[in-house]
Protein: Chloride channel protein
Amino acid sequence: MAGEVETNMTPTEEMNGSGSGHLMDFLDEPFPDVATYEDFHTIDWLREKSRDTDRHRKITSKSKESVWEFVKSLLDAWSGWVVMLLIGLLSGTLAAVIDLAVDWMTDLKEGVCLSAFWYSHEQCCWTSNETTFDDRDKCPQWQRWSELMMGHTQGAGAYLLNYSLYIIWALFFSSLAVSLVRVFAPYACGSGIPEIKTILSGFIIRGYLGKWTLLIKTVTLVLAVSSGLSLGKEGPLVHVACCCGNLFCSLFSKYSKNEGKRREVLSAAAAAGVSVAFGAPIGGVLFSLEEVSYYFPLKTLWRSFFAALVAAFTLRSINPFGNSRLVLFYVEYHTPWYMAELVPFILLGVFGGLWGTLFIRGNIAWCRRRKTTQLGKYPALEVMAVTGITAILAFPNPYTRRSTSELISELFNDCGALESSQLCDYVNDPNMTRPADDIPDRPAGPGVYTALWQLALALIFKIIITIFTFGIKIPSGLFIPSMAVGAIAGRIVGIAVEQMSYHHHDWIIFKNWCRPGADCVTPGLYAMVGAAACLGGVTRMTVSLVVIMFELTGGLEYIVPLMAAAVTSKWVADAFGKEGIYEAHIQLNGYPFLDVKDEFTHRTLATDVMRPRCGEPPLAVLTQDSTTVEDVEALIKDTDYNGFPVVVSRESERLIGFVQRRDLTLAIKNARQKQDGVVSISMVHFTEEPPQLPADSPQPLKLRRILNLSPFTVTDHTPMETVVDIFRKLGLRQCLVTRSGRLLGIITKKDVLRHMAQMMNQDPESIMFN
Amino acid sequence: MAGEVETNMTPTEEMNGSGSGHLMDFLDEPFPDVATYEDFHTIDWLREKSRDTDRHRKITSKSKESVWEFVKSLLDAWSGWVVMLLIGLLSGTLAAVIDLAVDWMTDLKEGVCLSAFWYSHEQCCWTSNETTFDDRDKCPQWQRWSELMMGHTQGAGAYLLNYSLYIIWALFFSSLAVSLVRVFAPYACGSGIPEIKTILSGFIIRGYLGKWTLLIKTVTLVLAVSSGLSLGKEGPLVHVACCCGNLFCSLFSKYSKNEGKRREVLSAAAAAGVSVAFGAPIGGVLFSLEEVSYYFPLKTLWRSFFAALVAAFTLRSINPFGNSRLVLFYVEYHTPWYMAELVPFILLGVFGGLWGTLFIRGNIAWCRRRKTTQLGKYPALEVMAVTGITAILAFPNPYTRRSTSELISELFNDCGALESSQLCDYVNDPNMTRPADDIPDRPAGPGVYTALWQLALALIFKIIITIFTFGIKIPSGLFIPSMAVGAIAGRIVGIAVEQMSYHHHDWIIFKNWCRPGADCVTPGLYAMVGAAACLGGVTRMTVSLVVIMFELTGGLEYIVPLMAAAVTSKWVADAFGKEGIYEAHIQLNGYPFLDVKDEFTHRTLATDVMRPRCGEPPLAVLTQDSTTVEDVEALIKDTDYNGFPVVVSRESERLIGFVQRRDLTLAIKNARQKQDGVVSISMVHFTEEPPQLPADSPQPLKLRRILNLSPFTVTDHTPMETVVDIFRKLGLRQCLVTRSGRLLGIITKKDVLRHMAQMMNQDPESIMFN
Structure:
């Protein structure tokens, strides 16, 4: 039977639509067990949806037959929630494991815990019970490498030993990561979000969300983050969560056999991924909705929210950091902000926009270079080189030596009384009696000035190294590095404004703004605003970004500064180019992604885009009752289109349907094997009744069963903006073009994307897949 | 010119599609100033979108011509943000004004402030500076009516005086409200959300969002809420915010002249409305997304969020309650919840679902009765009767006498040390030294038992009266009454569980759960969970409900109980009927609303739905070059379809386009007046070239300009689920049905809705409009 066997078709370079449709008389037959799409092809959303409706209809009608069937139908209805629960549990657990492992291995670069080598610095000192809030290096159980090997931590020798061991560990971790990726799961590299966006829009990449990718990505993510590279775990966590989603899809045929339904689960999994990455379930759902998902029905919204919550609570129950905080960077500020502060906030927004532009341009240029030159042939070497340079440059500066999330955490923090950080080294003014827990509006001490220099150097270092890091062949996210860039810049600006307001408190602006003796400026808030601006500039997230930040601070108080910075950053960055980093990478890779956010505003018509163009050979069509088996086989052999329109006759060119190449091949093969009298000169007919044939002609072959009688058509005068809209909203793969009922041509998704690229003065050949 | 003059067409009972299309050669002409849609018709989303793209294209190309044009293009690009800002400011201000007025007028029913009669009870006592946390009635400036008139508040006489004045004020307020609504703005009645949902889906109701409606709805909302009826201001506030949105749309031709763009603004305005109603901006955006909006592009998400935030901050800046709280019911609980408590929470969810079902069925039955019987002819009498009954029954019970939001606020509250409420009358156990600010796990005092009885009576009263109140001809929301029902039930359950855990602390379940001496149960949390469950049962909101509740409590801690209750309530209610109250009212009114959430799962085909059916006269069509002016005029006169397909010839039936009735009428009228030689027997042609005519025939009339060359077509074999999907996602008004290029029939939105109603065993005639 057609569709029951998976053939080994060679992937075709040029495709001409395929597999649309609602084979109404085909529905009673079982669907093939394997997915019906080729690798690197796009699914037909309408078809998937209609298949699911059929499945649902069958279950509903069966459920009335017996109690067992009724129970089965209930199980089917609940399977969505079960999958969400499992995704939440697994991705929460994996996030906790990753956190614990990263914590331990990051500290391993500096030293080891004597009481138990599997303890991180914090756990080691925490269990030793001797120091609590004291200095980091005063915990006796924790020994730096120099202490362990040379017995002391002072002097150039000890420093050099620590320095070289730091570099060696970093190189070891990253080389292990790149080898694992290369050998076991090449898809585990990168952030994964561009590919997930494309997959969610209906593209098939086999194995991208497979078990191996899940395993290797989890392991190598730990290694990559621990190696001290300028990358984060947030993007890859979304990939990991989507792999979990895909894994649990295979438990239920409802999801494993329907690519459309599977994508609903993956959307929710993406939400769970962001939820555990930041501890922000609502932000995660909005991220999935705004940034990642293509088709997001409201049912999915509710389930995504469920998955995101379960994931967040699982992570909190495991409690990897021992502080039972849900969010990654929990902050609490005590000072309100003032209207005048909006000026530096907006300036930070401008900085974020510029950084976003610089990063996207630089990173894409570098990635293109990697793709096109010799560079791309030695990924392991590249990873080692980047790791080496990062480690060499990072170690001397205390702000780059530690893990990036710790750095961000410190930069976000308000200086409290218990804070021992260099950044909080303010000179105490003995003349003023101030509450102990706030220190702004005091002159900065030498520590703050040292910190400023170190932060400035760290900023330059992070800006440059991140451009070269994102895209190397290990898992790498850019949320954390982007936020770090913004947080450093923000903190510097914050301290500057704070010191200005202290030293020039007689200026008219500060006079109105700061009452003497009261707090004015919270440098930590500037760091947070800067982080939001830079993240916004790179990803062009808006609502989800603000909501994630809102969940981090837990109050609506600071949402206006965050919004002001996010919106400025987006506008500035958009002025230089509409694409966020993910869209830029999608385009670089030539994925067939039809962005919902792009507006198509050109005045072209369907007739300008359809194939065949003027001068090209006519469209390959079948006739409803005047083609022989031989002719069909020749057509299949000579062309590599994915499907063929069926017309009444070549003269009238009146369209009656569309038939898939795959179905045609299988049907003829089956008929030749099983059906008597089917020979090369047998007539093929797609009509209900066999055609009138001479008496001596062989038995005709009826193929109406595989004919899609409802192909999608537009007229040749349809504006392309409508066609693009139809492709986007209905998720079509191809569309036939007619004029007064006559078939003129065909438009595939690839044609649409190429036309859009052309209209934007980009290379239409950059679209690689259909 | 066609389209420049608005004709007085009589509304037609039966319509046959109209006004689709992209008149490509028509675009250079100015669009008519008045909206091009009739009242009670549905817009064509594709057409609106394409019109906006054209407008945008024109502005972009002009902006390169001069500096002034460039500035104009910038203004145009910014106008969206300006509109959002204005909406936020105005709806925030209106919400504050409504709050203040309601506060004053509600108190006016009980007494008056001697120092300034325009002060509410709270303001009066607050300014008198004599009492702060003391009993409500101990403020000397505030006098109850009996005190003012008789000099004392004790005794039956005083009680009766207060009672009758309470009723008189209530009757006065509600009669004023109903008269204002009847005389000035009949659309100001009801909650408005069903109509706004329909309007956002593309329906036109002239004046529903007009200035008069805005004014009268604001005033009458205050009167209605103050009259003590069992209704809330939340739904009407959404209507008020949408009126603001519509008002500001008229400032910018971008929005006022494009019904599609206007709906983007209205979606954002709805978010702003919920934002000020609850002080929950994120919840507001999600409410708009989940519940109200039909077409919600991501650009709108960001703008909605902006509008919602501006509105919330405006409200907070005005600070009507003097407590600078953003949220309506701010609560803070100090006790965690225990897993075992999920059982009562889920029971509350079941209660919520049952209440939702009871309410929807009862209310719809009553509203249908009102529509079909004499009852509907005396709306003012009905309002007076309901007000009278409410006031008579409400006054004796302290929990129904006060305003419903105050009641909910008290029920949500945790009993603190300063709480003087009857609900917190617990017996202090002298043997235990407990912190002062928590009281659970003490035996209930007599006050609590009295309160329980009164609450039980209030619950029964609220359940019954709300069913009859929602739908009377004054502004009435049901969020607050629904929440009140749930909060009362929840508090009762909460107190019961609490007392059980106190009196039976040796039961195994309580033993594991409550450590002796520690708090166990927070009855306020039960009230909140109950409120969420009941609101969910009535409206079927899910994510937005949980997020609104999350914003009220400000912590993720209690999200699991809320989710458990919300999801249970939705499942229970869905088991009795899929429709929420808003969808039920939409259906009752016969609005053409194609719900995005409904799944169409039947196996019908386009051919089963299209007109003409078997036996009906053939479809009224025009031919491209063989119709005379006379024929066209006769066709327009004889039929009342909104448009006509144009075919090559009646024999071939090959479709070439679609022409609107309106355009046809105007074009012929204009031609007859202005164009020489056009007489009744002139040929009308839709082709580029005039047809070959005999030499003596009059000059033909070319109408290609008004022909839509890209009508939407499907084949007769297309499954209806696909057709429904296309109508939903593309926002079509009609779709032509073809088979092998031949025109067979037409499907309008009304046909689709009628078919869906029929498939669900509902009366297809209930769909009134197209």
Notes: Confidence is low (pLDDT under 50) at residues 1-35, 130-136, 433-440 of chain A. Chain A touches chain B through 71 residues (CB under 8 Å). The CA atoms of residues 157 and 553 of chain A lie 44 Å apart. The two ends of chain A are 27 Å apart (CA to CA).
